[in-house]
Design brief:
Shape: elongated
Order of helices and strands: HEEHHHEHEHEEHEEHEEEHEEEEEH
Number of domains: 2
CATH class of the largest domain: Alpha Beta
CATH superfamily of the largest domain: Nucleotide cyclase, GGDEF domain
Strand content: 25-35%
Largest sheet: 11 strands, mixed
CATH topology of the largest domain: Alpha-Beta Plaits
CATH architecture of the largest domain: 2-Layer Sandwich
Distance between the termini: 61 Å
Structural class: alpha+beta
Number of helices: 10
Length: about 375
């Protein structure tokens, strides 16, 4: 790296810190949401309002949640009218632009988004739950969470080495984690399912080889795709304490996990658009796309042994006519009386040497329970 590049990096870091301080003041410790911005003659114009107002009628405000935060031209005025607020102008020492000495718009956007509340319409989310966690001693609980975190970190690294578009983010539930892909989009969702498959293989390998059985817990898992709000926790010093998500998909996986059996993996019944057209994938067709992506992975190895084949599928009874298994859609009623539909899922990984890794429960195991 040249001295010039180091100076540019330092300058951007200083600008980022200044912008963070300005936006943090507007954010008012989380009571306000920053909605959108655009360059102005003397700096930038910003839309901000109390979060309680933003959520009071989120159906009417949906475009504000789902669109980008850089709102050039009339877009900012339209959003301000929709929210019944006036934009605030923030004066800056430098103009926004791409010329030398300007503040890059991408830098403003990167900092600004930390103070927004966005709605993501489609994102894959995994909920991991440690069975019997509350009954374990504190030392065992800490060891189990450490093993789980290590497995997630290793699986993410292995997935990225395979070229999968994944960057894990997570929040703890106390006895497990919500895990999702920071990246969004169809490919990101498919790749996240593949990364979850890698995680299960890694975790199974640890369970098979660990000399401390208590440190490798029994898990139950739920995967689904749906909408959610996402918001961050920026700190005054310019750092970020991480993201949180809440919405339809987190509610669904939380309700389903309470009915999941030990070692079971459930996949929610979801519909996910495949592109700009009207075609949509359900859980069954989406798993087929995931299987194709898994089949294309090269040199995936666990504990030094290459994984030859991975089967990731939904279970169900055998069809009497052709002998094929038909995925069985199940309905689970939660404690509030709401119904949630899901499938039982299974993952089998066949190594070049050694015993296969079998993850999840077979359909017959469900009838026995």
């Amino acid at each position: 790296m040249t001295a010039e590049n180091r100076q540019i990096s330092h300058d951007e870091a200083v600008l980022q810190q200044r912008l963070h301080a300005i936006f943090f003041d507007l954010w008012r410790f989380g009571s306000n949401a920053l909605v959108g911005w655009r360059p102005s003659r003397n700096g930038i114009e910003v839309i901000t309002l109390p979060k309680v107002r933003l959520f009071a009628d989120h159906g009417r405000h949906l475009p504000v949640f789902s669109e980008g935060t850089l709102m050039e031209g009339a877009a900012l005025d339209d959003a301000a009218r929709l929210l019944d607020v006036q934009p605030v102008e923030l004066r800056l020492e430098q103009r926004i632009g791409d010329a030398a000495g300007d503040i890059p718009p991408a830098l403003v956007e990167r900092v600004f988004r930390l103070f927004t509340v966005r709605k993501v319409l489609h994102r894959a989310v995994l909920l991991l739950d440690i069975v019997g966690f509350s009954k374990a001693a504190p030392e065992v609980q800490a060891a189990q969470l450490t093993t789980l975190e290590f497995s997630l970190n290793l699986a993410e690294e292995m997935a990225r080495a395979q070229g999968l578009a994944v960057t894990f983010d997570r929040t703890t539930t106390g006895d497990g984690f919500y895990v999702w892909n920071e990246r969004s989009g169809l490919r990101a969702d498919i790749d996240f399912f593949c990364a979850v498959a890698i995680f299960q293989i890694v975790f199974s390998a640890l369970k098979r080889t660990s000399t401390h059985a208590e440190a490798v817990p029994v898990l139950r898992l739920v995967l689904s795709i749906g909408s959610h709000f996402v918001y961050h926790q920026p700190r005054k010093d310019g750092s970020n304490a991480g993201a949180f998500i809440v919405g339809d998909v987190t509610i669904q996986v939380a309700r389903l996990i309470s009915s999941a059996l030990p070692d079971q993996m459930l996949v929610g019944d979801f519909q996910r658009p495949l592109g700009l057209g009207q075609n949509r994938a359900n859980a069954e067709t989406f798993l087929l796309a995931v299987s194709e992506r898994l089949a294309a992975l090269k040199s995936l190895s666990v504990l030094g042994y290459r994984i030859d084949r991975v089967a990731f599928y939904l279970t169900g009874p055998r069809n009497a006519d052709d002998g094929r298994h038909v995925p069985a859609l199940m309905t689970i009623t939660d404690k509030h009386g709401f119904e949630h539909r899901c499938y039982n899922a299974k993952l089998n990984a066949f190594a070049e040497q050694g015993e296969p890794y079998y993850c999840g429960l077979q359909h017959g195991d469900l009838r026995q329970n």
